[in-house]
Amino acid sequence: MFEKLFKNSILITTDRLVLRPVLHGDAQDLYEIFSDRQVMKYYDLLPFESLERAKEQIEFFTRGFEQRTMIRWGIELKQSGKLIGTCGLFAFNEDALKAELGYELNSSYHGNGFMTEALKAVLDYTFRECGINRVEAFVEPLNTASQGLLEKLGFTKEGTLREYERCRGELIDIIIYGLLRSDR
């Protein structure tokens, strides 16, 4: 059902961005993002401590695409070619026609609408071309910026999953957001 996502590396362009595969040459930019404690505050990984760890993450994204378990786009500024974040889909469920959304952005670029622009393009493509009916996002309660972003994109806050996952050594609550094809 979701095979169109994995036929080729999908390139998506917007007014200011190019969404494309994350490449080996992006290791330094990716390290800049994933080593930032502000970016990683609500992430399920600890901040990266080496460029090698960023290279491993690129391999993880590549393997996920090859194994058809995830698609991750690098978010590149058209003007400079700099990778400023990533976004993508994973946890595909073909029976329920759904996937989960994930994203992160270099903190130097927060507040400029880049992630809104990127995710709007990804969601437009996903609902138009891929047969997905539902996209979910899971957010920590204190991550109000991410909640605001999802609400701006039309997601509905569906509830709080109490002590849903272990993160940074403790069980934490998670808020689930959902966006249906019919919501758009």
Would you kindly provide a written description of the structure presented here, covering whatever features stand out?
The chain is built from six helices and eight strands. With 184 residues, it is an alpha+beta fold. The chain has one domain: Aminopeptidase (3-Layer(aba) Sandwich), CATH 3.40.630.30. It has an eight-stranded mixed beta sheet with strand order 1-2-3-4-5-6-8-7, with helices on both faces. Helix 5 links the parallel strand 5 and strand 6. Helix 2 crosses helix 4. It is globular. 28% of the residues are buried.
What are the main properties of this structure?
Aminopeptidase, alpha+beta, 6 helices, 184 residues, globular, 8-stranded mixed beta sheet, 31% helix
The H-and-E topology, N to C, reads as: HEEHHHEEEHEHEE
Question: From the coordinates shown, what is the CATH architecture?
Answer: 3-Layer(aba) Sandwich
CATH hierarchy class name? Alpha Beta
Shape: globular
Largest sheet: 8 strands, mixed
Task: Write a concise synopsis of the structure shown.
The chain is an alpha+beta fold. It has one domain: 3-Layer(aba) Sandwich (Aminopeptidase), CATH 3.40.630.30.
